[in-house]
Amino acid sequence: MSKTPTNTYSRKIDNDTLILVEYLAKRKLKYLSFCIAIGVASSIFIKLYILGYSSTGSFFVNDMNVLSSANVDLKIVDNLTPSDNFNRIFQQVISTSVQDHLIKKFDLTKHYGVDSTKEFYLQQTGNILKKNISVKKNTYNTILVTVNDEHRYLAADMVNEIMKYLDELNRDYYAKNIERKLKISEAFLIEIKKDNTAKSRSIDSLLSEMHKLTTLANRSTTSSISMLELEQRLGILINELSNSTHDLMNSQKLYNLSLQALNQKNYNTITVVQSAMPAPKSNIYIALLYGGLISIAVFFLLILRIHIKLFYSDHMNLLFTKSKEESLFLRIFTTMNKIALIVAGGSGLRMGTTVPKQFLLLKGKPVLMNTIERFNSAKAFDLIIVVLPKMKYNNGKS
């Protein structure tokens, strides 16, 4: 029986790859430890400063809760509180007042690692805080406040504190607005009372004239006309007095409502729809994933660096050499294909002459010059390099 030959396949590893593998194998613990350390540090940094935790709370503004509870026509006092204060709330969330309150409440200067001994450290802390706060409004006029932070519980506490402090700021805003309206309503009441007093006097005067006309024995045509005019004037004054009295009653309602709202200290200007809760899901796995990818990238960069160091060190020296002469020499040396090297560095001691033999005259020229001319006339070389003794370097150049 004849045996069928079995074909074995063997992969041939080139010499450069073998050198690289041996170099890595000798230092594998060092490089693996370095890559793992970079990955762990990157995961911690990404988790704390890039990913962080997000907590969101929502609320809406109670613009009309005090007014509607007083059973007063809102059209009368519609200008007491604007119908839409969301733009003002947005500005309050990112205002300096809210930032300063949070910085003091949670010691954010230390938390963000800002040096409190430097100038404008509060502004720097406020800028960091502002980047971590976002405000949005949905279609139901509900405001959403979100805070990002490296600590999940601190992020939730900051959101809840923002909503609580906004209620205080909004209450102060309403109090100042009510005080302003109160002064306006008081002045309005005084003017209406003056106007009603004047109209009451006019009505009394008209009634007195009408009484005189009715007591006359013989009523003439002129008296009838005068009586008709007085009746018309009286009707107009009574109508104006009725309107003024209605305005006075409405102003008194507004006055009483303002006093009630001003004296009410504990009413809520915002209603919290959902308080902020700490983020339930940990992002450590995402951070570890990114850290692992960074470790792999660092490992390949190390391999690339080692490969360049082993096989392209001369090229790197050419690129980053500090000596201009050396750089020029290396560029010429690496770009020329054929180079002639004439070694003329002897001192001439064996010939017993004071002048080295390469500088002795031959047919009226130094021996070295004849040699150079022969090489140059051949035109077979891209570069001719002459090696001279250091003491005769100037002679050689001449």
Task: Give an overview of the whole structure.
- The chain is of the alpha+beta class and 398 residues long.
- 62% of the residues lie in helices and 10% in strands.
- The strands form three sheets. Strands 2-3-1-4 form a four-stranded antiparallel sheet.
- The relative contact order is 0.11.
Low-pLDDT runs? 64-83
The oligomeric state of the chains shown is single chain
CATH architecture of the largest domain: 2-Layer Sandwich
Summed up, the helix count is: 14
Brief digest:
Helix content is 62%, strand content 10%. The chain contains 14 helices and eight strands.
Provide tags for this entry.
8 strands; elongated; alpha+beta; single chain; 4-stranded antiparallel sheet; about 400 residues; Bacterial polysaccharide co-polymerase-like
Question: Which secondary structure elements does this structure contain, and how are they paired or packed?
Answer:
Blueprint: H1 15-26, H2 28-51, E1 53-61, H3 65-69, H4 86-93, H5 96-106, H6 108-111, H7 121-131, E2 133-137, E3 143-149, H8 152-215, H9 221-263, E4 270-274, H10 284-311, H11 313-320, H12 324-335, E5 339-343, E6 361-362, E7 365-366, H13 367-378, E8 383-387, H14 393-397
Parallel strand pairs: 5-8
Antiparallel strand pairs: 1-3, 1-4, 2-3, 6-7
Helix pairs in contact: 1-10, 2-10, 5-7, 5-8, 8-9
